[in-house]
Each structure stands twice: as structure tokens, then as C-alpha cells.
Amino acid sequence: MRELNAPGPWQVPDGPIRSRVAFAAAHVVPQVGAENVPGAPAVVDWDATLAYRHQIWRHGLGVADAMDTAQRGMGLDWAATQELVRRSATEAASVGGSIACGAGTDQLDPAEVARWEAGDPAALDAVTAAYREQVRVVQESGAQVIVMASRALAKVARSADDYARVYDAVLAETDRPVILHWLGTMFDPALAGYWGSESVDTATATFLDLIRAHQDKVDGVKVSLLDARHEVGLRRALAALEGSPVRLYTGDDFNYPELIAGDEQGYSDALLGIFAAIYPAASTALQAFDEGAAAGDAESARQGAARGHAILASTEKLGRHIFAAPTYYYKTGVAFLSWLNGFQPGFQLVGGLHCGRSLAHLVELARLADDCGMLLAPDTAARRLQALLTVNGADS
Fold first, then answer.
1. What does the pLDDT read at residue 396?
2. Contacts of 108 (CB under 8 A, 6+ apart)
3. Nearest by Cα to 279 from 342, 338, 367, 346
């Protein structure tokens, strides 16, 4: 076995990060020994789950909670989701941390949703009511709302007008600007045709129409399509809107270094699952952007941006590996790195999702993490990696 490297020269910031708004979409740690098997209610290790969020806040990033990284609709049931939202929001308030939480429709019975016919007014009303219930839970916790893409809405919506009907009603009840989430099929195949079209260009036009209609209700949009060119085009379209600004929070876990660094016409903020795995590096990179901007001259700003981009780029191979197809198993890699770094007692996910990647994939993940300084406790990582190899009969 190779000798592991020391962690990267990561820095904890002295104050808030100012150059970008950045959220890490955090995962949930299951309770060791509980029946966290497919189809069973999630049993969460709250101490480990919340301690991980404190690490993210300590590094100056916000936490995006109760999202797909936390296995919404993929192991985390609605009862556990509500508790996660309330607990995380309370912890955020205790340290002045930033938090935004997902509101969706996954409390609806999948068997009932499967029987719905497209365009059924009663079904659309049920989707709207489910969204409203979850929005209320997030708002009452004190967290910012992220309006997540809905599998149920994708099933029942017949056209762009059906999406507008539901989102109009939901946004009318929000008490502060929200983040709209557009999640691609590589993350969730059940979201095909979201916004009423299989054409990304047509869907984008519908998405922009929705934002224009509710611009004062929209803080930003998180786009997870893994298409950097599309994101830059959407970012420029948002910048051209008159009225209150709308942020583009990149959800591109492949191309985040270039998108966050930006160009002469702007940059993307961040709401990323990969940031939950690389938060020390992400924080250090954003601090470099801050330092360059704070110097007050163009050359310092350029050098700071170059340093920040280089740090993020050093983690890009790791990000691409964790999010490799089938992309919806990326949570396995986030939990694996958390386990290697000693932040959870077992390599597990709720719903048994930790079995979603092969041993070869995990070993390569460990190598890439070591290459970019993301094994934060090398001795612990070495012991745990050896134990994984042994139990899988690959220690020779």
C-alpha cells in the first residue's frame, strides 16, 4: 500500500467569505447497527450528522440541507427530513451559520403518484399542497427555502403551463426569496422533461419566464445539468434581467472550477454536493478570491482569482470521479470520504445506498483524494482503507 500524503494546506477563514455565496450540500450519517436498509425508515446518527455540518460552517461555507445529497427520495423519508431541517437550522442559528433547506413533494405516496394521469387538476393540486407543506416546515425552522424539482410534478405535468400553475401557487406563499432547483436526469431519471419539455432550450425559456414572473421571490437558481456552456448562457440571461438580481448557484460537480472563477462577464456562486466532500479546499480557494479582491487593484484580483481557480482545479478529477455515471450514486463517494476522514463511524448510508459503487471505484477515489490533499487524517484513512480491502478479500 502506498504511503499517504499529508493533507493540503487548507485554511479556516477568520470571517465570512465574501467573494462568492457558497453552500455545501451535506449528506446524512446513519446510525450504526440500525436497519438502514432499502425501504426502511431512516435512522440517523444525529451527533455525527450535525457535527459534519459544523465543520462546513467553521470553514465559512453555508450548508444546503435536506437535498438530494441527503438522499431525499432515495432513503431519507419525510419524517426524518423534517427532523433534519429543524435540527440543522437550530445548529446553524447557534453559530451564525448560513443554511438553506430543500422543500419538495416526496411525502406523497409513490404508488398513488404512479396512478395519476397527466394534467389531472386534482393531482396538480396535491403536488401544490405537498410543496406548501414542506415550504412551511423550512420557513418555520428559519432556513432559506430551496424549491426542489418534484418527481410527482414531472409525472403529472402535461405542459409548461402546469409547471407555472404549481410554482406560481408555491412562490406566492414564500416569506423570503428562495432558490429554485433544476436537477438533471443524470441525478434523477424521474425528472425527465422537467419544465414541460425534453428540449433543454425550450425548458430554459420556460424557466426564465417563471423567474421573470416572480423575480422578487427568487434569490437564485441552482442548476445541475453538468453542462458548463448552458450554465454560462443562463447566467448571462439572468444578469440581463431588469429588477432584483438573481444568482446562478452552480450545481455542476464536473466544471465547478471554471464556473466559480467566471469570466469578464461574471461568475457563478455555488451550491454543490462536491463541496460537502472538499469543503476545506473549497473554503481555501474562496478565501484566495477574497484576498485578491480585497487588495483593491486589478493585478491582485487577477492573482487571487488564479490561486482560487488552481485550488479548485486540483480537486476536479476527484469531483468527476465521485460524480461519474451513474451519477445518482455520487452520495456513496461523499460518505466514503467522510468515513475515511473519521467523520462517521461506519461506511454507510441510509437505505443501503453505500453499496452503489464498486471496490475499484472506491479505491480510485481514495487515491484521487490523497493526490489533492483531501485525506485529512492519513493514519485513520490508511487503517480504514486497509480494513475495507481485507473485508472484501483484496488485501493481498
1. 53
2. 126, 127, 130, 152
3. 338
Report which of 263, 365, 256 is spatially closest to residue 313, judged by C-alpha positions.
256
3-class DSSP state of 190 = helix
Angle (CA) 295 296 300, round 5°: 55
Q: What are phi and psi of 231, to 5 degrees?
A: -65, -45
Closest CA to 131 of 175, 81, 166, 177: 166
Q: What is the residue-wise DSSP string for 226-270? A: S-HHHHHHHHHHHHT-SSS--EEEE--TTTHHHHHH-BTTB--EE
Look-up of cell digits 500524503: 5
Distance (Å, whole) CA 283 – CA 116: 45
Sign of CA dihedral 105, 111, 117, 123: negative
Q: What is residue 395's predicted lDDT score, i.e. its pLDDT?
A: 75
On whether the CB atoms of residues 90 and 54 are closer than 8 A, the answer is no
Instruction: Name residues of the chain where pLDDT drops below 70.
Output: 1, 396
C-alpha cell at 338: 467522510
Q: So what's the pLDDT on residue 1?
A: 60
Q: What is the pLDDT of residue 2?
A: 78
Strand partners, 76: 72
Q: Which residues contact 358 (CB under 8 A, 6 or more apart)?
A: none
Contact 66, 101 (CB under 8 A): yes
Dihedral in degrees, nearest 10, Cα atoms 287, 290, 291, 293: 160
C-alpha cell at 168: 406560481
Q: Beta strands 99-103 and 144-147: pairing type?
A: parallel
CB-CB contact of 377 with 366 (8 Å): no
Nearest C-alpha neighbor of 310 from the set 373, 227, 236: 373
Q: Which of 106, 133, 205 is nearest to 163 (CA)?
A: 205
Strand, helix or coil for residue 72: strand
CA distance 370 to 360: 15
Cβ burial of 394 (10 Å; 0-12, 13-18, 19+) is exposed
Q: Which amino acid is at 193?
A: G
Q: Which cell is 4 given?
A: 499517504
